[in-house]
Amino acid sequence: MTPASRDVAVIGMAGRFPGAPDLDAFWANLRDGVESITALSEDDLLAEGIGRELFERDDYVRVASLLEGHDLFDARFFGFSAREAALLDPQQRLFLECSWHALEDAALDPASVRRGGIFAGANMPAYWMSNLLGGRRIVLDADVFEQQIHNDKDYLATRTAHRLGFTGPAVSVQTACSTSLVAVHEGIKALLVDECDVVLAGGVCVRVPQRAGYLAERGMVHSPDGHCRPFDARGAGTVFGNGVGVVVLKRLADALADGDRVLAVVKGSAVNNDGTDKVGFTAPGVAGQERVVREALRVAGVPARSVTAVEAHGTATPIGDPIEIKALTRAFRDTTDASGFCSVGSVKGNIGHLESAAGIAGFIKAVLQLRHRQLAPTVHFAEPNPRIDFAATPFRVDAALRAWDAAEFPRRIGVSAFGIGGTNAHVILEEAPRPTTAADGAGTAVGPQLLVLSAKSPEALDTATRRLTARLAEPGAPDLADAAYTLQTGRSPMRHRRTLLRTGSGPYAEHTGESGTGRLKTVFLFPGQGAQYPGMGSELHAAEPVFAEHIDHCAEVLRGELGFDVRELLLNRDAPAERLTATEVAQPALFTVEYALARLLASWGITPDGMAGHSLGEYVAACLAGVFTVEEALRLVALRGRLMAARPAGAMLSVQASEERIRELLVDGVDIAAVNAPELCVASGPEPLVAELAERLAAEGVSARPLHTSHAFHSPMMEPAVAPFTDAVRTARPAAPRLPFASGVTGAAITAEQATDPAYWGEHIRRPVRFADALRAALPTGRCALVEVGPGTTLSSLARAALGARKGLTVVRTMPRPTEAESERATLLSGVGDLWLAGAEVGWRALHRVPRRRVALPGYPFARERYWIEPRGGQQTAGVPEERHPERPQTRTARPGGLRTAYAAPDSETEKQVVALWEEFLEYEPVGVQDDFFELGGHSLLATRIANRLTEVLRTQVSVRDVLTHATPARLAAVLDGRGN
Asked: Which of 6, 425, 431, 973 could make an S-S bridge to 411, C-beta 3.0–4.6 Å?
């Protein structure tokens, strides 16, 4: 394997560090040389239970490297109950949230990751030790087992993989202070041997209690003055702190092929151990560090002279820093004698030593420096450690922010992390390659753009909207099309959804909806003659190659049928309207536009589960279903138009009444031509007779209006056209439909016999259009979207009238009406957005005609709440507590919002007992009898404990399967009551 083929891309990252809730704040602190170690007050220390006899000692250092919000968590987002969240180690909570944000930064929906791997490590579970156990002896029972799997470091990677749905290796890494950089190395190895396609790597360290100082003893690693001064003469030790960081890794070749945003490139990495070649187990080893740096350079295939920065381990201990510089110098001197060309620094001066998260903090700092092309200052550096002769080494320490210039080589930086016990890691990073020509040439957004957002609650959706629009209003905001692409393809779709449609710098058009449950089914509706207008489809033809391809093909087929190019009317808004109102032109023109639009939607992943067409529109449905080829359909539609246009002039009347009522009032010679809704029909016949009908209806108080049409379609006046058209269909040899659509003749689902019968299509000209019945026949059960595929909103209006307030129904339009000035693409994108709001899947990538960049956008606004169990004193035995369940929070969380069921109180005694146990174990109150166990955060372990308690309380055997299968209190109580009877 060549060095280039071993390259791994960093495509996303996230972190929370002292003084920095996100990486933008982290970089600002690094750039400005900010120390984020906090002085603690007496009140802070007393609140944590630290006595005066301890913190008033001269050797007690009252500082801490704090992580704000370490006790907060969005439990509902990740599917945890309040009780489970309170039991869960805060390190695992923070790592979950950080992993999600890292994936969002990489524009990766977890569901799209085919084989995801996780390599991560955490610090000792201090929350478990301090708050849950509190020094008690451990007796193995269900309580302790549950605490263990929620707190032990072994479950960090596997729990994250479980919650994200990752199926690659999930490995918890533990090598003390080098843990998280070793995790990066292990993730790189897994990618290179093809164990996974994407890797999350990182680490977390959360100390409990947080606001606590430490005793600084002579000869130990703790700083006596509360400051960490790497490489400085005053450096006397480190300050341990808290933080979490995660990076997303992918093979560079895959990342470039997939159009990922590459933040940096890992050229090589190495891990080793000191062995016995050092003073003692906790001491650093110069030989081991030298070997690991040399090996990383070899794997990377780069000369040491090209590495112009090193993010060192740099703990500021008097012995450790000189040993590290000595080891680095020996490794670099293999290939260069140059001095002072490489800047060495350590993030520990800013945030302290994060132990299991120290390596990832340094790695992220290195990537940020590459991205910004600046070298951050090393905090507190004034005079070098006297044991380090920097002038004789390749290294220097920068005390101020410095531009990072590149000349002969790309910018490269090494990152080191060394663990107590001797496991050393070193990684070589290189700046990201320049964007490809295709992506670089994507250019600024042109035309309307559709931004999509979703969240698990309305409140989070509102917050996400505010953050996004604020980001897009900032100077240097991402291009709107790039932002749209990132949101469409790189975020996980959730229940509560919003679309923001925007053209240029204009206002956002906002639509909000809920996706519901179950698959959304789609029905295409194709309008008939009367919806056409000059220029329909002209903007889409210019903007959408798929649409243009099908318009052009249809126009060429029709050229011989019409004697002219129909694009003269379709692509010219100023074309004479009277030419397009002619039946022989209107019908093939409408077919062309509707067919091309349906094909465009299909290219975007939007395909019908059913179809219905109004008169002419049924031919589009039949063509898409495979009854006719598009060429045969065009010829038949053109002939149909000519035959119908050749009939004598007639009139049509829209009547606001039921079919039965109209038949009572019909004039002889006038027929019902269409039944569009329960109270909306069309009558058709000779003009004098239709006028007589209009007078009769007016006298009866029935509303009616004449339609602007030249002929009496779907009436006996069309009879002479039936036979010649039937003969033409026979020649076309129609096939059985491959997709379902409704018959406008019968108002029922079309059968294969009807679709292949030429007589059916002949009678189609003469018989009334039973659109209301056809619509109901095409409508599937469950949630459904009706998509009007063609100009205007005629069928959308008819559908609303025919179906009333049917639940779970979405009606969508795709083209503007002739009187609207709205952009065709804006209308279409708005319709696609409305489908997505209702839960439709969209092939978003196909909407972008040129390659787009993935850009950094605000991450999910977690609705964090405090989940915390305070420590208890005393010498009890864990698992045999003084109360039955003292490890549980003392107060229960209110019933969560957004549940699928409304609250229903228990009725029977068994329901009350089941509900009481659910409230006890799930820690929600009140629980309703129709609430779902899994929706409330239940899992198999809780089910086991509930089953055991129910067996005790009810004195009847209750199994885990009972609880899991009958997942509401009402269903479970009914089963248990049935056994009792």
From this structure: 431
